[in-house]
Amino acid sequence: MSAYRWKSFDVNEDRPSKPRRYGVTEMRSPHYTLFNHNVLQDIFESMGDCVDGLKFCGGSDSLMSKAFIKQVIDTAHQHDVYVSTGDWAEHMIHKGPSGFKDYVEECKQLGFDTIELNVGSLGVPEETLLRFVRLVKTGGMKAKPHFELKFSKSDIPRGGDRAYGAYILPTPRSSELVEDVDFLIRKAERCLEAGADMIMIDADDVSKHADNMRADVIAKIIGRLGLEKTMFEASNHNASEWFIKQYGPN
Fold first, then answer.
1. Is residue 47 within 8 Å of 18, Cβ to Cβ?
2. In 3D, which of 250, 242, 231, 226 has the Cα closest to residue 26?
3. CATH code of the region 115-149+168-250
């Protein structure tokens, strides 16, 4: 337990009570397995105080009946858990000029609290992305743009025997890497100015493997956007542990 230097586990020094503005934990719905309502209920009843949000992943909600989606959302709300759409909006913009607006209205009717906008999958100009953010806010929901960090192999340090997230000696990097990260941050800042409530960063490329942890890039993003406005989506348990050790539960 001493490995968690931010918490003794003997004193209640964890995050503030829900609803929280920071230190938010969002759980994913299953991608490829059945979404059992009883399992979800068990999770909320046993450890609901630790869960702030539920995200429908991989377009799983598109295969469910509206009645079932509403039931899941109502269950989450009973435990003070917000519900996010996940990245599905990109499939709606192909339905015509009013496709995204209709999608926002339907999400509102079902009871969703947050609409996630996967910037990479949407593939729209920046001004269109900002318009989508404003449409979500006008619809009475929270907007959460989702960005991905991508690196070429030349930008990833070579492997070696080192602890997860250990310090890596600086090496010359391509200017393309710096430009990409700065461009992502500038676009995220504009989304926040347009009313976005949270910026989600897909951290797989910076934290998926122990040998390519890019603590410098993570620190740069947090330094510019702030901890309260940044959420990292890490699919690797080592990465999740690293984030908590470095930045604490909040």
1. no
2. 231
3. 3.20.20.70
- pLDDT tens-digit readout, 161-206: 455 555 455 555 443 344 478 889 999 999 999 999 999 998 776 6
> Distance between CA atoms of 205 and 212, rounded to whole angstroms?
8
> Average of pLDDT values for 35-43?
80
On the 0-12 / 13-18 / 19+ scale of CB atoms within 10 A, 159 is exposed
Q: Confirm if 196 and 143 have CB atoms less than 8 A apart.
A: yes
- Over the stretch 2-15, which tens digit does the pLDDT of each residue have? 444 445 444 455 67
Q: What string of DSSP letters covers the chain? A: -TT-TT--SSS--SPPSSSPSSS--EEEPPSSS---HHHHHHHHHHHGGG--EEE--TTGGGGS-HHHHHHHHHHHHHTT-EEE--S-GGGTGGG-TTHHHHHHHHHHHHT--EEEEEHHHH---HHHHHHHHHHHHHTTSEEEEEEE----GGGSPPP-S--TT---------HHHHHHHHHHHHHHHHHHHTT-S-EEEE-HHHHSSGGG--HHHHHHHHHHH-GGGEEEE--SHHHHHHHHHHH---
Parse the chain into domains and list their residue ranges: 115-149+168-250
